[in-house]
Design a protein that fits this description.
alpha+beta; TATA-Binding Protein; Transferase(Phosphotransferase), domain 1; 3 domains; eight-stranded antiparallel sheet; 18% strand
Length: 584
């Protein structure tokens, strides 16, 4: 009992520390550093007694309200202001002494400092508390769950910490903790879906015919599933009750194949299926409620069909780069019942499923694909996952050289493919850590796949309305981005969310190695232009243009839709080619 209590305290402490790290990194990047409130090497005398001893610089943040401050010992930081922390935070209010704080107190304190701008956001405080509680439970479950031996799903279910720069990365608001643990990938679970017997006339399909897949997962024909978290919502819906009374649909409960939830929580995997099944849930994960709007499914299937020549061209120009296509979507249509169109839309969204290509068994066996978010993070013991992987079989003296070669192989594939899609074809991919999958050849990155065509956009200037005639008006609206907004999305996802985190984890506090890894990106940008032609936006990166970083904290504070997120511009650490050669 004592050992169990000590373990639970340890998991709680880890979850608390992670929440503090996420919040401070978000606040630093989005508020403190742009406003000149942060001293990353504080040497003054007004410091907490608890930080009088110990090594490492102190971070002090002074707030707009006089007399309020935060102080904490830094572990190490990056060129983009991403930090680790080596102590608990200390808070100071006007007329009071420094006090040591846990995550809840720290978050409450920061929300109070931000309240003059946006009001006190109690909803975000609750979401952060929820994220901490869920993280604590998931850490405990993950410690006891064995790996499966399938690199793809082991990585998908290994993302214990989630988004490193989000205030509530593991919040699953409104879902009881028992259901969270029963269906969350981090608990390494297998789950059946919730199934209904349906009148086949209800089924609506876009793209490829996937009836055989539904029959295989459900065990027989004329069945249709939803995510277990969505079942209660559906069963309580008045239109579904009416459909049941007419004999059009009958709930059967949990049944069928045992599937594995992936890192997005709602997307399901099974090694024997041709597709991942991306289900719909009315649950907020990070910034968005993850329902499957029909126009988004429509656009995803259209991206598979409409852009087929572009996907082929990108793959030919950048061997090893690919996109996981989404050739089908399904839902149920209850419009024959009549009544409120909004009510029909709600049911359509809840039943929406997107079908994403699953790399075949031979591909999985050869390349051992893994999601980037599971590599560029730390494990539950605080150790860099990718650094541990690289150091196997490499002497300590040879690590830096190996890290540079490994990173250049990965970043070259990713950036070459994403930039060809954007600059040659006007396609705005979203290659953040959870959307990027790496494949390996003898330990080196040799394949990169980008996924989530639902989040893929088209540059309006390159894709006029007449070329999208097959899409509904709402779907066309959802996919069109301006060139400027498209570049922000590409640059943020690829350079800041993805590669900056890879550099942070690979360098692990080694400033010289960090500079060498950023220099690789400069060299990749230069080579890309030599091969495919000069692009002012890439040349701007080499000449020091700032990097756009999406403001996840501000998005949640001001309760904006994710599409309406704004950006903070970060000092560019990418070396121009001449300097890159000197650094290397």
């Amino acid at each position: 009992m004592l050992q169990q209590a000590m373990r639970e305290q340890w998991y709680a402490a880890q979850a608390d520390a992670q929440a503090i790290t996420c919040w401070l990194n978000c606040y630093l990047r989005e508020f403190a550093l742009p406003r000149g409130q942060a001293d990353l090497d504080y040497r003054g005398l007004d410091r907490p007694a608890g930080l009088a001893l110990g090594e490492g610089p102190l971070l002090r943040i002074d707030f707009a309200q006089a007399g309020y401050a935060l102080c904490i010992r830094l572990g190490h930081g990056s060129r983009l202001g991403r930090c680790t922390y080596a102590s608990a935070p200390y808070l100071k209010s006007t007329g009071e002494a420094w006090r040591c704080a846990d995550a809840h107190a720290t978050i409450h304190f920061l929300l109070e400092r931000l309240a003059p701008e946006c009001g006190f956001n109690a909803e975000l405080l609750a979401q952060s508390d929820n994220s901490i509680e869920i993280t604590r439970h998931l850490l405990q479950h993950a410690a006891a769950a064995p790996l499966r031996g399938d690199a793809l799903i082991d990585a998908e279910q290994g993302m214990l910490w989630g988004h490193a720069l989000h205030p509530a990365p593991k919040s699953r608001e409104g879902v009881p903790i028992g259901q969270v643990l029963a269906c969350s990938p981090e608990a390494r679970v297998d789950i059946p879906l919730y199934w209904f017997r349906i009148d086949p006339r209800l089924l609506r399909t876009l793209g490829r015919n996937v009836r055989s897949t539904l029959a295989k997962v459900g065990g027989e024909e004329h069945l249709y599933p939803c995510h277990p978290w969505e079942a209660q919502r559906l069963l309580a819906h008045p239109l579904l009750r009416e459909a049941r009374e007419r004999g059009w649909i009958e709930p059967l409960g949990m049944r069928g194949m045992q599937l594995q939830p992936t890192s997005s929580v709602r997307t399901m995997y099974h090694a024997e299926l041709d597709y991942f099944l991306k289900m719909s849930i009315h649950v907020r994960l990070t910034n968005c409620v993850r329902k499957n709007a029909w126009y988004e499914l429509e656009s995803a299937v259209a991206m598979t069909e409409l852009l087929e020549p572009a996907w082929r061209d990108v793959g030919e120009r950048v061997p090893g780069f690919g996109v996981l296509l989404e050739p089908a979507a399904t839902t149920l249509d209850f419009s024959a019942l009549g009544g409120d169109p909004e009510a029909h839309r709600e049911l359509t969204e809840s039943f929406g499923i997107l079908y994403r290509d699953n790399p075949g068994a031979l591909v999985r066996e050869r390349y051992h694909p893994q999601v980037a978010g599971a590599l560029f993070t730390h494990d539950r013991h605080g150790v860099s996952v990718c650094k541990t992987m690289l150091r196997q079989g490499i002497s300590a003296s040879g690590y830096a050289r190996a890290a540079v070669a490994w990173f250049e192989a990965y970043a070259g594939l990713l950036l070459d493919g994403v930039w060809v899609a954007f600059f040659r074809h006007g396609i705005v991919l979203e290659p953040h850590l959870q959307n990027t999958v790496l494949g390996f050849d003898r330990g080196m990155p040799s394949r990169v796949w980008v996924r989530d065509l639902e989040g893929t956009k088209l540059v309006r200037e390159r894709w006029p309305e007449q070329q999208l005639g097959a899409l509904s008006e709402r779907a066309r609206q959802s996919v069109h981005y301006s060139q400027e907004l498209g570049w922000k999305r590409v640059a943020y996802c690829a350079l800041v969310n993805n590669l900056a985190e890879a550099i942070f984890q690979l360098a692990d506090g080694d400033a010289a190695l960090e500079d060498r890894l950023w220099a690789c990106i400069g060299a990749i940008a230069q080579r890309w232009q030599e091969r495919f032609g000069t692009q002012p936006l890439l040349q701007g990166l080499l000449e020091g243009d700032a990097l756009p970083s999406k403001n996840n904290l501000r998005t949640r504070l001001f309760k904006r839709a994710d599409r309406d997120s704004d950006y903070t511009y970060l000092a560019n650490p990418i070396s121009p080619p001449a300097a890159a050669r000197q650094v290397a």
